[in-house]
Amino acid sequence: MPDRYEEALRGIAEKYRRTAEKAAEAGIIPYRSAEGKWITSPYDGNSWWTGGFWPGLMWQLWHLTGDGFFREEARRVEKLLTDEFRSFRKLNHDTGFMYLLSCGADAKLTGDEQAETDLLHAASLLMGRFNPAGFIRAWNEPERTGYAIIDCMMNLALLYRASRDTGDPRFRGVAAVHADTTLKEFLREDGSVSHIIEFDPETGKRIREHAGQGYALGTQWSRGQAWGLYGFALAYRHLKDGKYLQAALKIAGNFTAHIREDGLTDCDFLQPAGEERLDNIAGAIAACGLQELAALTGEEAWKRHAEKLVNGLLDRCADWGGDRCGILTHCTASYHDDGAGRHTNIVYGDYFLAEALMKLCGKDPELWS
Ligand code: GLY
Prior knowledge:
- Helices cover about 55% and strands about 5% of the residues.
- It is mainly alpha-helical.
- Helix 5 (about 115-125) crosses helix 6 (about 150-165).
């Protein structure tokens, strides 16, 4: 099996070595690919939350191959992302995704001092979104002042890193308060997690759950489940409190019970039977989170589930030579809104597939740490 994973990693490096130049020539941050082209994000230009995955993938491939092309391509986009500090109003809690995998990866892998400065700038922006009523605010619309979302569990990794790099516990302290609120308000009895909870921004009291990118209110959007799984595993790694590990294990139990026979992942675990709507990004993220759990607990069973997910992706949904610039097919951004992509290649699917393979091959540079 490891040979298969090594071969898949070589395949990713080869395809991206051929196709990433098209993004550099166009001067864009790719969001998805179709018909031999890279396509930018559908909303918010270079401030869209997914911009960090392209440089993150380039850093993974640089770490794998040592090919300077990937380092330079990562830095090209890192510059576009740090230019977005000036726009500020469009940035939200996803500064974690955007800057940990760009500046954070650069500083970690090369020791670049400006990248480290930019990482701390981003961490300060994220910490500035903290509401002392108990949560990190997700988005910027005035009517969403009290919204927090499960995805933010991943963004907390930027705060753990900032505390480690500066010796200042404030960043980590804010992350712990947000993680505690998420544990209390998002984790359901059956091990699934809500996507969006609205709080009273003055008191922190829970107001209501909102339907998000899944099928309906109260269902189980699979990518949200994957964010929760990996996010709580990382919380345990960095904050060392067993309650986060218990949460990650509970979410993992529910996620693995819903892995399909073919190893692919439905967009929502409670979507109507017979409705073929997949989100392979969720499977790729979960394959990373499950391996993190295996490493934290020493329980290899979690790794077997991760392999099942990765094998499903490689067997059925990897486009090595076809008409797309990217690789993973059948990625779906949102159940009911096809504007950001349905059953297509989306770059962060490729990012997490590469990270899952790097972990399986013992080569992961641990960009979330
Ligand atoms: N963070 C938004 C998403 O997963 O689509």
